[in-house]
Amino acid sequence: MPASTWKRSLNTSDGRKLPASLLQKLAAYKRKQAEERLKLGAAWHAHDLIFCSEQGTPLSIPNLTYRYFRPILEKAELPRIRLYDLRHSCATLLLNAEENPKVVSERLGHSTIVLTLDTYSHVLPTMQQNASARLEKMLYSDVRTQFAHKTEMGS
User: Fold this and answer.
1) Phi, psi (rounded to 5 degrees) for 98
2) What is the pLDDT of residue 5?
3) Model confidence over 115-154: pLDDT tens digits?
4) pLDDT tens digit string along 11-42?
5) Any residues with CB less than 8 A from the CB of 144 and at least 6 apart, and which?
6) Does residue 64 belong to any structural domain of this protein?
7) What is the rounded distance in angstroms from the CA atom of residue 23 to the CA atom of residue 7?
8) Is 48 in the same domain as 105?
9) Distance (Å, rounded) from C-alpha 20 to C-alpha 26?
10) 64-92 pLDDT, tens per residue?
């Protein structure tokens, strides 16, 4: 796959983009993969995959989990989770960081925001508390009081 096509395929048509730093790492990985492909010659299975076996074939979930994912978890001293749980972690982290739920829904590829909100409603109580605190600050802070006073005085 030509580099320009490969880079375009990393960003989706609906606007979800990968960070530039990750794109650089993926480009370096792809160059290393191209070197391995040349070494293997005809033994390489050309499936145009970014992540594949040493022969170019698709990775199986069990191999990916046991050879790569679990060792990473162990090295980082993280609890054993399923690879799929990373989707949930991503959504929860973004919602806790007060990212717009519509953006989170789009990143997850959910068909509607309702699915995202129903699935991650456990994160929302904190968001409601934060929204109340922000509203209270806007309504009762010195900045709001000064603005209201200026408006009342016709300034």
Assistant:
1) 65, 30
2) 45
3) 999 998 887 777 778 888 888 988 888 765 555 556 666 6
4) 555 566 788 898 999 999 999 999 989 999 99
5) 138
6) no
7) 8
8) no
9) 10
10) 999 999 999 999 999 999 988 999 999 99
> Which of 105, 96, 101, 106 has the alpha carbon at shortest distance from 130?
96
User: DSSP characters for 44-98?
Assistant: S-----SS--TTSPPPPHHHIIIIIIHHHHHHTTPPP--TTHHHHHHHHHHHHTT
Any domain includes 114: yes
Give the domain extent around 2.
Answer: 1-59
- Same-domain check for residues 104 and 44: no
- The reported pLDDT for the residue numbered 93 is 93
Is the separation of the CB atoms in 68 and 86 below 8 Å? no
- 100 and 33 share a domain? no
How far apart, in whole angstroms, are the C-alpha atoms of residue 88 and residue 42?
Answer: 40
Residue 31 to residue 33: CA distance in whole angstroms: 5
Can you tell me the distance from the alpha carbon of 137 to that of 7, in angstroms, rounded to the nearest whole number? 44
Residues 117-135: b if buried by 16+ CB within 10 A, e if exposed? beebeebeeeeeeeeeeee
